[in-house]
Design brief:
By secondary structure, the protein is mainly alpha-helical. It is built from two helices and two strands. It has a single domain, classed as Pantoate--beta-alanine Ligase, Chain: A,domain 2 (2-Layer Sandwich), CATH 3.30.1300.80. The N and C termini lie far apart (about 65 Å).
């Protein structure tokens, strides 16, 4: 085996490894996005369930009850989920959102597609 052949083999292996890293990075981004949307769906379901169990109308402000604390105290969550892509979740506070609107949105919703396509049926 000549030095030229050995160099070509090494270059081909390095190119394959580089392609592997690019593919792994895009796979990680996709799984972060899916995890974020799943977190939003779980919180949305918990808010809807709490509103149904306590006869709260959608769009109603439930002050003095803190909705975030109430969901944790009633066993819906041990603590609120965090975005796997290191985004920041913002919540609407004590207002149960009307149908089609999310209670919790991610700061990466615009640039990394961390938002569901159609949350109206949640």
């Amino acid at each position: 085996m000549t030095l030229l052949e050995l160099t070509v083999v090494i270059l081909v292996l390095l190119a394959l490894i580089a392609a592997l890293f690019v593919g792994a990075n895009s796979w990680k981004s996709g799984s972060d996005r899916a995890g974020c949307i799943i977190n939003q769906r779980h919180v949305q379901s918990a808010v809807r369930s709490y509103a149904n169990m306590h006869a709260i109308a959608f769009g109603e402000d439930i002050s003095p009850v803190n909705l975030e604390t109430a969901l944790i105290a009633n066993g819906y969550f041990e603590n609120y989920p965090e975005c796997p892509g290191n985004g920041i979740y913002t919540r609407t506070g004590n207002v149960v959102p009307p149908l089609g609107e999310l209670y919790m949105t991610c700061s990466l919703a615009v640039n990394a597609n961390h938002e569901p396509k159609n949350p109206a049926d949640w």
